[in-house]
Every structure is written in structure tokens, then in C-alpha cells.
Amino acid sequence: MSETTREMMSEATGQAMRDTGEATSRKQRMQQDGFNWVTAIAMGLFHVGAIAALFFFTWKALFVAIFLWWISGSLGIGMSYHRLLTHRGYKTPKWVEYFLTWCATLALEGGPIFWVATHRIHHQFSDEEGDPHSPIDGKWWAHMGWILTGKSMHHDTTTLARYVPDLTKDKVHVWLTKYHWTGNIVVGVILYALGGLPWLLWGVFARVVVGLHATWMVNSVTHLWGSRRFATKDLSTNNGLVAFLTFGEGWHNNHHAHPVSARHGLTWYEIDMNWYGIWILKKLGRARQVYKIDLNNLPPKPALVRDVEAAELLAAAAAGND
Fold first, then answer.
1. Which of 235, 215, 212 is nearest to 225 (CA)?
2. pLDDT digits (tens, 9 = 90+) for 112-141
3. Hey, CA dihedral for 311, 312, 313, 316, is it positive or negative?
4. Which end of the chain is flanked by fewer CB atoms within 10 Å, N or C?
5. 3-class DSSP state of 269
6. By C-alpha distance, which of 206, 221, 229 is closest to 133?
């Protein structure tokens, strides 16, 4: 499926949901559901652990944390949850897809099914009513308020059927979603056995907290501050600092203009570690149909088509151009 077809589907589905009234303010719905105490307590404990890590600093513990930050943030969130599962910007053998997805669970951002559903909804209603985490509802809300209130990461079955039919039919992704928290327990036990409390605090608590805030900055900061190469209908910008902290996800305006592209950094100076990882997979024969944008050969924008079935949204894999 080409990017043009996907964008037409996305526009059509969004319009259909607006016409039927389904795109009501998710912030209002979440606030009605109340404060999410389980998530808040868990996040609070991890932040306490991250602060405690400062009193148990060792260089080895820091390097372990940086390595696992790359594993969870680049191989996991950037290459798997975002560019592979959400946008299908490239294809891999299933074992590679599952391994990268497991890496993403180490970021503690939820299981693949709920993460992907939330992000597809974000693209459907970016910076409009229905966007789960837009700064138009407040900077704090966009950063982490949306996580602490309601059921933003635990959608109902109707929503999941519409936005992630491709993943809900996959038993491995269902399992990884149900038990997404187990990876950090396994990693934590191994780190404690190898390096004691410093490795545990830095390799799990500090690493998770930094990774969470880096990802949340994509939702908040890149929709507030940065440069805009493309005149998108939302507030997305390119932000070099966020790109550095997220291995390339901060080239957000590029991404919103061409969401299927597996490459977000479009020039030599837009460092995109996640793209480099996908490129290496391709060279190793483990990635195919890799769709990427060339600034010198941009695809035309599609016209709005209103009669596409909502359930078809992003369900099929993208046809590659590389």
C-alpha cells in the first residue's frame, strides 16, 4: 500500500469519525474516567528510583543504562513500535519483528497493541479534538497528564478493532501486550546479579524515566518549539534536541508530513539513529519494502476521499519503494 493510499484512508477515516461524533474530546473522556492511581504510583516509584540512582553512581552502571536506553528506545520504540508496527514503513521477518517489539516493552510505555492504537489515533486527529496528547489541551497534559488520567493506554475493544486489527489478530503481540512489564523484571534481576544495586537503579529505574520523558517530549515539545519544513495541518516541528534524546524521533514535522517514511531525518545533518538501524537491517537482508522519502522527489498530496472503511486504517503493510 502506497503512502498516497494510506493518507487518503487516514483522512477519510478521520472525517467519518468527525461526522459521526466519535471524535469528541478524549481529554474530556479521560477526565471523566478519573485519576489513574496505579499508573501514577508506578511512575512515582520509578522517579524515586531514578533519583536514588544519583547516589549510587558508577561509570559501569551509567554505560549499562545507556546501552539499554538504546535497546529500548531505538531498537524498541523508534524502530519497532513506531516505524514498523504503527506505520508499517518497512517489513521484517516475524522473529525480527517480535524481538524488536520485546525490546520496546523495556521502555515501559505499555504493550504494542495499546501503544500503536494511541499513536494511530494521534495521527488521525493530530492537534484537533480527539488527539490523546496535544498541547492545545495544555503543555503538562501533552507531556504526561494524559497518561495519569483515564484510560488513554487501555482502549476498549471497539477502538482496538478499528485501529489495530493487524496486531489484535497476532497471538504473540497479544501476549507481549498482556505481559509487557515482565521484560524489566527479567532485566532487573540480571542487572542486580551482575552489578548489584547501582546497575539495577541505573539500568532500570533511571533508564526508564529518562526514556519516558524523552518520548513524552515528542508529544509535547515537538508540537510547541522547533522548525517546520512542511506546512502540515498540525503543530508538528523538527526539534534537534528531542531527536538526539529519541534517536531520531524528534524530526517530527518531517514525520507528520510523510508518516509512512521509515526515514525521518531527511538531510545529512538530521541525525536519525533509528533510520540507520533500519538501513543496517536492510543491508543484512532482514528488512524489505523499506519506504523512505527523498526531498528531491516528494510524492504528491492525495485528495480527500470520504468513503473508505474505518476498519481498513493502517491494517495492511505498506508497499515498499526500496
1. 235
2. 999 999 999 999 999 999 899 999 999 999
3. positive
4. C
5. coil
6. 221
Instruction: Tell me the whole-structure pTM to 2 decimals.
Output: 0.84
User: Left (φ > 0), alpha (ψ -120 to 50) or beta: where does 112 sit?
Assistant: alpha
In the predicted structure, residue 227 carries a pLDDT above the cut 80: yes
SS3 (DSSP) at 149: strand
Q: Which amino acid is at 193?
A: A
CB atoms within 10 A of CB 106: 26
Scan for cell 508499517, then name that residue. 88
Residues paired with residue 149 on neighbouring β-strands, in sequence order: 35
Q: Provide CB contacts within 8 A for 241, sequence distance 6+.
A: 221, 250
The percent of residues in the chain predicted with pLDDT above 70, rounded, is: 80
Q: Is the pLDDT of residue 23 over 80?
A: no
Number of H helices, E strands in the chain: 16, 0
191 has pLDDT over 90: yes
